[in-house]
Design brief:
single chain, 230 residues, 9 helices, 0% strand
Length: 230
């Protein structure tokens, strides 16, 4: 599946800052991509699931109402860094969650799967590190979704196997068991996994390329994604 937009995510940010149908569509996509990382950060800062959900939703509604995305600038760093700083300011200014107003026309950008997964920091992990990890998981999930559609039913188990290992959501299934799942030999499944791993890497690089400004090092960002998931 091709990317919904051919432009970089920074172009999406600038489009989202504008009052247009494309801008609103871009804003919806950005909110969906960054909702889970910000929700995880709020949880790591001690908010209950309900308060973290309200804070994240309220933050995006404020972005819509005040047009704060117009302040984002590729020359000043990664978009996710801009968003996290803005979210920290929002949390500091919104201590009383019961008074959070529902702005932005009632739009909701809650990825329900984020509420079903444990989003707690690992031992000695900071809220900022958890935010980076959840962002990396979201990025990988987008790449996995694209590759799964391309691979079809036959290749889906291999994609799921690689994704589970990469994100830590599963153990390394023995080759014999995996070969039985896809009804092939162990040798054939090893070759297929190698090829699928290469394809997944390319899809992840495609997703990363959408998050960086022109001229920035995509491979360096890939190393950061992998380190965040480790």
């Amino acid at each position: 599946m091709a990317s919904r937009f051919q432009d970089t995510r920074w172009t999406l940010v600038l489009a989202a800052a504008g009052d247009s149908s494309r801008g609103r569509q871009a804003l919806g996509e950005l909110c969906e991509q960054y909702w889970s990382p910000l929700f995880a950060f709020g949880r790591a800062r001690g908010l209950s699931p309900e308060d973290a959900q309200d804070a994240t939703q309220g933050f995006f509604e404020q972005l819509i109402a005040r047009g704060d995305l117009a302040l984002a600038d590729p020359a000043r760093g990664r978009f996710r860094a801009f968003l996290l700083v803005a979210f920290k300011h929002f949390m500091a200014n919104e201590r009383d969650r019961a008074r959070t107003l529902k702005r932005g026309g009632g739009q909701r950008f809650v990825p329900l799967d984020a509420l079903d997964r444990p989003l707690e920091p690992a031992h000695h992990e900071t809220p900022e590190a958890l935010y980076e990890r959840e962002w990396a998981r979201t990025l990988v999930a987008r790449a996995v979704g694209r590759l799964s559609e391309e691979a079809g039913a036959e290749g889906a188990p291999l994609v799921k196997h690689l994704a589970a290992i990469m994100t830590g959501d599963g153990s390394d299934v023995p080759m014999k068991a995996l070969a039985g799942t896809v009804q092939t030999s162990e040798g054939a499944v090893r070759v297929a996994l190698h090829r699928m791993r290469q394809k997944l890497r390319r899809r992840i690089l495609d997703e990363i390329a959408q998050t960086v400004a022109p001229g920035e090092d995509v491979e360096d960002e890939l190393r950061h994604v992998l380190a965040s998931l480790a």
